[in-house]
């Protein structure tokens, strides 16, 4: 079976799936308005994905992951396990109405972006046209700089405004190294293998860093990078690959996910080594800690506040719908946040060495943690726990329908313009593959603040990585590989891809 970055979803698939889910929901007692809106949302989402170009464009990847993990996966799963989709959430009808209208605004944003861009050629396409990328050397060089940047906060300090903090926020090198390394392994083996030194080193490094921080995203990202790389090269999966993926999925659900939940609630010594030590201690007595975690989960389910009446494990984290519905209902009661926090978001674009006094003008709290405290999900004394809400929920919280009809599309268009100008056609240049992976987590959970923040921090980090990997990383890589690559030799230039 050949794995590819698909360019479109057949509309018949969306229609069939939407009708099946709607019928299942109605049979289970879900309100008719809810089911009809969800059916319409799925059809609009399919149209938006196809209009944006599917995984041929970074914008299409955003639309796909946003719709899937903001609402479609979570609501569909609720129906699959035999529960009415509009139960155990706050203001389900209003929330579904807002989400359906917002999905239409997402389609409008895609069309506006395409209209503005026209035939503009991206930076990535220009770089690839002038400098065909040696994937092997670029992967090794990016790995070296990525590891150095990871420890920059330890060496240079990680406080607000520090160089170490700036480098860590712009450090996308290990993600790119894993993707480029996967492409290099496949190319140099003529499609016989997809794992080797070039992607194992950055992948294992990312995993260990995630393990040390009890980060689910950090531990699972290497697999996502690998999948994006094999899809880019149209790699042919065999039985062994599906078996390995099944083992990874089971391990993630029954070991790594509970480990992250347990570890982050235990006291840990400062530093990476101390955190790894706590993680290893949990693994040594995993059956005990897992039992304690299961008891806490059952108590949490009994106390309420969950979208599912039964434990669905890791799958519960693949949707922002429950938290979004709570924030929307809270807003509808008259708790409108306002647009003043946008000033803080845009001021954050400027690093302290450019605008040293910016903190004086950033006096308004906002973002997921603050909204979580507003809702009572976390106590007001907790200013560190991350709570994720979608762009839809935050836009509505900021300005109700003005947020949905004005702020939401304006934010999407600004973001889409920035990533399309950088990445362009993913079949021509590999740099947008980072976004195809990054959006799995970022698209559904970023909120307006995260979306607009990425316009600067993530994009400038990607530009830095693109220029470095094109002009500098290959030189670092050649310190390890002395032979000079020649055009036409496996690993030399670009991957032969099917063109539209």
Any chance you could write out the topology, listing elements then pairs?
Layout: H1 11-27, H2 32-51, H3 58-80, H4 92-117, H5 123-130, H6 135-150, H7 152-156, H8 163-169, H9 173-188, H10 197-212, H11 216-232, H12 239-263, H13 272-284, H14 286-303, H15 321-332, H16 341-347, H17 368-375, H18 391-423, H19 433-445, H20 447-471, H21 473-477
Helix pairs in contact: 1-2, 2-3, 2-4, 3-4, 3-19, 4-18, 6-9, 6-10, 6-20, 9-10, 9-11, 10-11, 10-13, 11-19, 12-14, 15-18, 18-20
C-alpha end-to-end distance: 21 Å
Put simply, the count of helices is: 21
Bulk shape: globular
What is the percent of helical residues?
55-70%
Into which percentage range does the β-strand content fall?
A: under 5%
Main beta-sheet annotation: none
User: Helix and strand string, N-terminal first?
Assistant: HHHHHHHHHHHHHHHHHHHHH
Structural class: mainly alpha
| Mean pLDDT rating | 82
Secondary structure tally: strands: 0
State Rg.
23 Å
Low-confidence stretches: 484-500
Oligomer: single chain
Quick recap of the structure?
By secondary structure, the chain is an all-alpha fold. The chain is built from 21 helices and no strands.
What does this structure look like?
By secondary structure, the protein is an all-alpha fold. The chain contains 21 helices and no strands. Helix 2 packs parallel to helix 4 (92-117), helix 3 (58-80) crosses helix 19 (433-445) and helix 6 packs across helix 20. It is globular. It starts with 10 loop residues before the first helix and ends in a 23-residue tail after the last helix.
